[in-house]
Amino acid sequence: MIQSRICEMLGIEYPVFQGGMAWIADGRLAAAVSNGGGLGIIGAGNAPGSYVREQVRLARSLTSKPIGVNIMLLSPCADEVAQVAAEEKVEVITTGAGNPSKYMKLWQEAGSKVIPVVASVAMAKLMTRLGASALIAEGGESGGHVGELTTMVLVPQVCDATDLPVIAAGGIADGRGVAAAFMLGACGVQMGTRFLSAEECSIHPVYKEKILKATDLCTTVTGRRLGHPVRSLRTPFAREYAKAEYGGMSDEELEALGTGRLRLAVQEGDNEKGCFLSGQIAAMVRKVQPAAEIVKEVMEGAEPILLGAPKWVK
Ligand code: TUI
Fold first, then answer.
1. How far is Cα 60 from Cα 194, in angstroms, rounded to an integer?
2. Which DSSP state fits 288?
3. Which residue has the CA at smallest separation from atom 11 of ligand 1?
4. Which of 29, 18, 100 is nearest to 58 (CA)?
5. Which among 120, 118, 153 has a CA at the least distance from the CA of 135?
6. Phi, psi for residue 79 in degrees, rounded to 5
């Protein structure tokens, strides 16, 4: 089976991270992925430190393998959650939606490996200089908060800019995507959308069903005007928001319009008012299965492609 630098560094069997999705990636999902040989990551999102501590402890009760916590840097609770992640001594801390410089020392002193999501070469260089252990290069095919560049464009440039292991994210859901990521210079992948269909993923059944039924053009990006573009399924809410964004609404009204919508999707399955974050790859997510099976399936899919590479070159 394919092993890489990141497996060795973290003591994991497969170079597969599960994205730390806000409201979605809880201790149960993270433990299932880690038990399957990947790296399960708890998403802090906007939640307070107490929630994150509880989920870390839940994950610890379900697995003895390494786990991670993702700190969403736009969260009003980021400072508090950063502290909790250090206190709980999680093996890996990933970050998203911003610059984690001010927390790096705290986390390194706690013994955690810091693996920030970067969406640009400049951020990749800065994080390398500040002692990150690896980088996640996430292209705009991903769900949730997105950068400008695609995975195809971002990953090789980040690999050229650093000697650290690079994990590719955005638009990866099967063995072909993993093989392509390795060809771009990555030594592992992070998937979010593919894990939405995991048995251990506790999202509302309506959310799961929407992912399973998604087609290629099902997602859209809103929120550019306020400076945090977000990819989600095209739903009545996404259409309403897009209309408001290009209409006369003030920034404050627009901000208020988006507040609480992810919770409505994840917990209530509210088809009208919810914001169903999803990557472009949703159309390739076709069945509900255990998280461990997903990890194994994508890696088993990648191996023959990578080992048989000369066959594709005619
Ligand atoms: O963070 C994510 N995905 C997310 S966060 C989220 S919650 C949210 N809700 C409303 C508005 C915004 C977020 C849902 N999905 N992915 C990782 C990611 N990080 N993608 C892009 C970036 C990124 C962008 C800019 C990382 C660093 C960065 O640096 C900017 C700077 O500060 O220079």
1. 23
2. -
3. 228
4. 29
5. 118
6. -60, -45
Determine the longest span between alpha carbons in the chain, in angstroms.
57
Q: How far is CA 226 from CA 141, 237, 238, 241, 268, in A?
A: 20, 17, 15, 12, 26
Q: How far apart are CA 147 and CA 123, in angstroms?
A: 12
Report yes or no on whether pTM surpasses 0.85: yes
Distance CA 149, CA 155 (A): 9
Contact present, 141 and 279 (Cβ < 8 Å): yes
Taking the centre of ligand 1 as the mean of its atom positions, its distance from the CA of residue 145, in whole angstroms, is 5
For 122, other C-beta atoms within 10 Å of its C-beta total 10
Per residue in 146-203, pLDDT tens?
999 999 999 999 999 999 999 999 999 999 999 999 999 999 999 999 999 999 999 9
Pocket mutation for ligand 1, best pick of 145, 241, 263 (most atoms within 8 Å of C-beta): 145
